[in-house]
Structures are given as C-alpha cells and as structure tokens.
Amino acid sequence: MKAQGMLKAILSHPANRDNRGAALIRTARWQAWKRLIRHPFDLTVYENMKIRAYPDGQASRFFYFGPLPDHPEMTFIQRYLRPGDGFIDCGANEGVYTLLAAKLVGSAGEVHAFEAVPLYLTRLRANIRANHLTMVTVHSDAVGAEPGRMPFVIRGVGSRIQTREDLVPTANTVDVNIVRLDDVLPDRDWAMGKLDIEGAEHQALAGAEKILARGEPAVLMLELVDRFLIRFGSTVTQVREWLADHGYEFVCYEPGPNRLVTASDSFVPTPNVLVVSRERRAEVDARLHGAL
C-alpha cells in the first residue's frame, strides 16, 4: 500500500477515529524502528497473547490499526466463537487469526492452521510456541481441490500456488504439498473457517465439499478478489453461486448493532466476506446475541 493510501486507512480505521494522534505516533515509532533497529518487536495482543512483529510481516498491522486490525471481521469472531469450538485457518501466515481463535476456543477447542510458505510457517510455529497453544495443529501445506505437489510463488504476503500468470520461473518458487480439507481435517463440528489464499479460495472450497455438505463450518470468512480468482479460473460471482448451491449465503456483519444482514445481489466484497450456512443461520445469530 502506498504511503498516502496507508495514511488514509490508518486515520479512517474504526479503532483510530477517536484517537488519531496516538495512531500516528504508533505508526511513526514503528516506521523508525523498522528503518533504524531493523529487528522484530514483541507485541502483546488480544489482552495476553504474544506475537512477534517483523518489519516485513502482517503483525505490523497492530501498530497501524490497533488491537483488532480487521475490525468488523475480528469483532465478529470475538462475539461468535465459544470455548470448545473448532476453527480452520487457511493461509495462516504468521498467526494473527490463529492466535485470536486459539484464545477464544481455549484448551477445549481446536484450531487447524495451514501455511505453506517456509518463512511464515517458521514464524507461525514460533508464535504458537510462545503462547503454549496446545489446541493448535499446524499443517505445512497449501489447500486445494486435489492432493499433490505444486510450485508456490513466494511474493511476500501475496504468496500463492503458481499459475499461468507466473510464466518465468524465479528463485522465489518452492514446491509445496497440496491437501484437500476433506482429507485432513478431523471429523468434528467446525464453528468457523477462514480462507485467505490469494485466489485459490474456490479450489479450496471444492476440496471441502463433504464438510460443507454437513453445514460445516457454520461460518466462512473468505478473501474474494476477482483479479486473484481469475488466475485460477473463477470469479466472485462464480464462488457465490457455487456456495449458494452448497447451502451458504453471503452476509454483511454490522458491528454497531451486532447483526448479520443478508447481502444484496449487487454486494461486492471489500475484499473479505462472511458466508453463513443457511441451515445454521439462526444458530449463528443466537450466538451473537448470547443466547448460545
């Protein structure tokens, strides 16, 4: 993100609107640390979790956007997940969502985190060890429609399975294992799944048809961007239609009134979208309001 766009995002973020000065000070300090010290910085997040922020990593978003960097999505997760729940994190990166889910589901819950990039896998495991998260299982795999091995293009936080768009082989490509969620996840209830895998979301969903047929997980959070999905032969519209055929509907979460609203036909993800099992919608709504 360019500097001007980043500044606008920082100032408009819900966590910063009432204290923009403090947000700018945090940002300036982190930028100085990155340039002068050039070492990772250990942060306390989610009240008592530890995460290591690297100059090139996702955890730096805590400096810019406060305690819940993805405010609507993370607010939903905080209000929805319960102790003992199951959570699936595909494209876990350094563990920003894995740690949040682990805190909420507790020792009786279960979190499965998938990360194929060796650098982020190392950081993810270190963050899990630092917090003694025995409920987290880490998979050093990418997720897709069919099992096998594929080249993975390493492009920072935008790393992904190699596609035809990546015609020139580079030194930043590594072979990774591809797994189907249907094949590797244990047979249990899943409250929520997150898929942020740079356009391969439709493929990953196709590899989870058996789970989805049971209405598991009840909620999915997907990053859906047309230009990313097109690399893998899909679009946002096609994903939405596919999910509708499998019993799921797009919804919007409104943190203020704490409610889910069924998305209109013209709804465009920005880029994250919540998807809810139609059969379990009442259950999800009840959880948000403390009835379950």
Describe this structure in words.
The protein folds into two domains: 1-67, no CATH class; 70-288, Rossmann fold. A hairpin with a 4-residue loop joins strand 12 (248-254) and strand 13. The strands form three sheets. The protein has an eight-stranded mixed β-sheet. It has a four-stranded mixed β-sheet with strand order 6-9-7-8. Strands 1-2 form a two-stranded antiparallel ribbon. The protein is of the alpha/beta class and 292 residues long. The chain has twelve helices and 14 strands. The radius of gyration is 19 Å and the shape is globular.
Describe the secondary-structure layout.
Blueprint: H1 3-12, H2 20-37, E1 41-45, E2 49-53, H3 61-65, H4 71-80, E3 86-90, H5 96-105, E4 110-114, H6 118-130, E5 136-139, E6 142-143, E7 148-153, E8 160-161, E9 173-179, H7 181-184, E10 192-195, H8 201-206, H9 209-213, E11 219-223, H10 226-229, H11 236-245, E12 248-254, E13 259-262, E14 272-277, H12 281-288
Parallel strand pairs: 3-4, 3-10, 4-5, 6-9, 10-11
Antiparallel strand pairs: 1-2, 7-8, 7-9, 11-14, 12-13, 12-14
